[in-house]
Every structure is written in structure tokens, then in C-alpha cells.
Amino acid sequence: MNLPKPGKKSKVVLGVTEKSLAGSIKEGLGYDVDASEIVLDLVRGVRLFGDKLLKQLKEGDLERAQLGLGHSYSRGKVKFNVHRSDNMIIQAIALLDQMDKDVNTFAMRIRFVVKDLHECLLLDPVRFFAYC
Prior knowledge:
Blueprint: E1 13-15, H1 19-29, E2 32-34, H2 37-53, H3 61-77, H4 87-123, H5 125-131
Parallel strand pairs: 1-2
């Protein structure tokens, strides 16, 4: 890791998006950790503008990284057990069900936000477009 050793002179604060992970890092490694909304906004900005911020990336690097992350996520969810040959199939079905649930939750959130934006547009279109 490219972080200086934790200590009183070190003014480095590590930003982490997961609060439980932040607690474990602080407890286990001793680093100052921040898991606030500011960190979430920074990570969101890096994801959104990462290709513009990182000039050394080539075309398709981010897509390959996302694909690798998806494969690693799936590998972690589908664990192999040598004692049961159909365990992979059972876990794959469970993974598909979980992904279906996640996609439906995301779609409901998007639907909610679009509905709110539409209501704001209907209430006062001049102020709505002034904020955009």
C-alpha cells in the first residue's frame, strides 16, 4: 500500500464507502478512516469522470475493469463445494435471484426520482430549469 505508516504525525485520512469496513480498517490497521457522504460523492465523481481524470487509460480499460469486477463478484457469490456436484447450480440460481432483486430495487429508485422530478417540473417549470 502507498500509505504512510499510521501515527500521530501522519495527517492522512483514508476514505472508505462502507462504514463497517472503515471500522475494521481503523481497528485492525490503525489508520484514520472517513466514511462520510463526502467520500461517497468523491467516489461517485471518480466513477463518473474517471476516463477524463486518468489520461493514461486507454479506450475500453474502464469497461474491462468493470467486467473483471463483475466476474470477481460472481466468483465470490458462487462458491464451489466438492461434496455436492449441484451446489454451483443452486448458488447460481440464488445469485440470479439476488441480481434480479437488486435490478428491481434500482429500477424502483429511478422511477421514484423521475416521478419527483416530473412533479417539480409541473409545480414550477421556471425554477426547475433554473436549477438544471
